[in-house]
Structure formats: structure tokens, C-alpha cells
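Exercise: predict the fold of this chain.
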Amino acid sequence: MTEWFDAEQRIERAQHFSESRRWEDALAEMEAALEMNPYNPAWHAQHGFLLDQLERFEEAVTAYRAAMDLEPDDLETAVSLGIDLARLERHSEALAVFEDLARRHPDYEPALSHQIMIYAELDRHDKAEEMFYLAQLVDESSPCGFFHMGASLAMRGEFRRAIYCWKRTHKLDPQFPGIRWRIAQAYRALGNLDRARTHYVAELREDPGDLDLLMELAELEVEAENFTQALARLSQIIELDPEHVGAHVATGEVLLRCGQVQRATEVLEQALALDEEYPALNLRMGEAYLLSAKYEDARRYLERAIERDPENQAALMAMGNCLLQMGHPAAAADQFRRAIALETDSPYAHHNLGVCHFMENRYDAGLEQCLRAVELKPDYVMAMHKAALACIRLGKWAEARTMIGRALTLEPNHEALRELKGRLWRYRLTGTLRRLTRWFRSAGRE
């Protein structure tokens, strides 16, 4: 009898810790209580809930099954079990749980609406829509059905319809977990950053300490080129979690874009001290040293980045640029060819390969690559400039004039192009005189 009383005391403490979101402490009390009394289905269900909070979904499934063994008709526990099976991508098992629930309780809307989620994950969106309409017949005011239908639509890129569904979810249940976040993501996918920001901030008011949410908001500010705001959000993350490597790396990236290379390098070195295996960190370090003209250091980090991810096009491009700066055009060309093999329609890789050819005095090959870059990116003025220079070198005066005119239409104040246009006739005259001189010399021989 005393042991059962102690178990009840443990459950009360577990509840107290749960209210304070002290999940580990709550879990310890709950498991101690279950050792004393393993026959209470509600405790097993609560055990599953606590494991969910810690994202220990495999163990949560075991806990929910234990609860259902003791009380097979607990509807909420069955739903929790199905959701966790779906999280673990055990879709056939999850579907079996919800189908069984729907057979036994045809008027229980969650048994239908959660099937929308499963079918969407299985890419069976026609079946997801069928489940949505069946769920609507049972309860047209269920926020859950609209939420899962919105997710199915978003997976198909139908973000406007997804927003409609998620706004209906929010209207039906303003406290629905993460709903403003989903709406924000959909607006962001549509490129409407102002509306996305509004919903991100609204969601953040509900949970100011959510690091993932803060990270997405920082990324949005980067997309909007609001770098000061992005740095402020990233600073919040680091303040909440000083060892958040992703926030350190993102801060370094923003500082690089702002031209604050020294500060960026310092921040990236802090990230490196926290986790030298963090994805993209070696690439960012390489880029920082490249901008600092510390080419040997840049090369060392970029080699590591490529070794760990041989198909990282950004790393290949950076390595190519580094080798160019070090005066190794042939080696640089190999990197740009690898980048083109990964993305044949990259105008920048074609342009840079062209520059390598020019440095090797292969002007025809360089011109071909620059023209390909312009074909892929019709407003690529830098590639037009290089192409014009190659045309002049090759004596293709009309092509050079056409390319210069096209580039100046896009950038009328481009100083180098304007100077080149002014000197084109001199280059042409010089080239003609050289050809005449060679002709006279050859004509004098027999």
C-alpha cells in the first residue's frame, strides 16, 4: 500500500515538472512510478507524452502500446500512437492504427483527418483529399483536417491554397501549435517576405525561445537583405545558446556579405572551435580567407570542404577562384569543369572557365565559354566584357562592337566598357596595320 502511495506522489511530482517543461525530471518521476505500479494505462500514456517532448519517439510508441494493452479503446492514446508511427516513417503501421480507429468509431474525426497526413507523406495526395472531405462530413469545424490538408497542398507547391487551409485552422483554433509558423513558411515560399515576417513574429511571441523559429526568421531577413535585423536575430540565438554552431556560421556568412571579413573570420573560427565537422563550415572559412587574400589558408579549408563533399559546387567554384588568384589557371579550370559537370547551366562556372582559358592564351576557347555564360544569363555584363576583349584579341571587330553595345545597354555607366568602346577603332586600326605589315613582308619573299 505504501509503494502505491509513493507512486502517486511520484506522479504528482511528474505533473509539477511537466508544467515547468522540465521534461527529463518529469520522465524520471514517471518511470519510477511505473516501476511501482505498471498497471495504470493513463500513466503509460503520460509516459509516452513525456518521451514525445524529448523526441524519443521509438520509446514513446512502446509506452503508448503499453497503455492500449491495458485500455484498448482510449481514442487519444491511439491517435498519439499513430502520429508517432508516422514520425518514424512507419506509415503502414500508422495507417493501420487510424483505419482501425475509424472502423470502430466512424464519427471520430481525428481518425480520418490524421489519415490525410499519412497519405500526404506517401505522396498519395488524391487519397489525402478524399480523407479530407470525409473528415469534413463528420466535423467541418475541425482545425486538424484543415491543417493536414494544408500540408498536403504545400507539398505540391500549392502554397496559396495551403495558406487558405492554415488560416482556417488558425481561425478555428488560434492556439493550434505552430500554425502561424506554417503560414509564414508558405508566404516565404511565395516570396512575400513582409507577410511571412508578420506571421513569424506572431509565432515568436508565443514562444520567444524557439531557436529554430529564430533561425528561420534570421534567414528571412537575409533573403530580404536586412542584414542588421538578421544579425540581431542570430545574436538572440547565440545569447540563448552560446554553443549554437549554426547561428555562429550564419553570422559569419552575413558578415561576409556585408564585407566585414575580419569579424566574419573571427566568428567562423569560434564556430570551428565548437564543431569542426559542422557542414559548410570549411567552405565558409575558405571563402573568408579567399576574401582576405590569404590564399594558402583558403586552399587548405576548401580542400577539406571538397574532400567531405566532392559534389559541393560552391566549394568547387571557390577553389577554382582561389587557384586562379594563385596563378594556376589549368588547375582552376579543372575545378570549374567539375562544377559545370554538376550544373551544366551555371553561367558563372562557364565564365570562370573562360577566364582560365584566357590566362592560358586560349582565346577561342575562352570566348566560347563567355558566350555560353551570356546565353545562360543574358544580363551578364562581366561575361560580355570578357567576350568583347577576346573578340578584339581575335580580330573579330564587328562581334566586339555588338557585344560592347549590348553590355552598355544594360549598364550605360560601365566605365571600362565605355573606355573600350572609345578605343575600339584604335585597336582595329592597329590590328589592320599589323596584318598589312605581315602581308608586305611575306609578299617580298619568293
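Check your answer against the key: Residues 252 and 266 are 8 Å apart (CA to CA).
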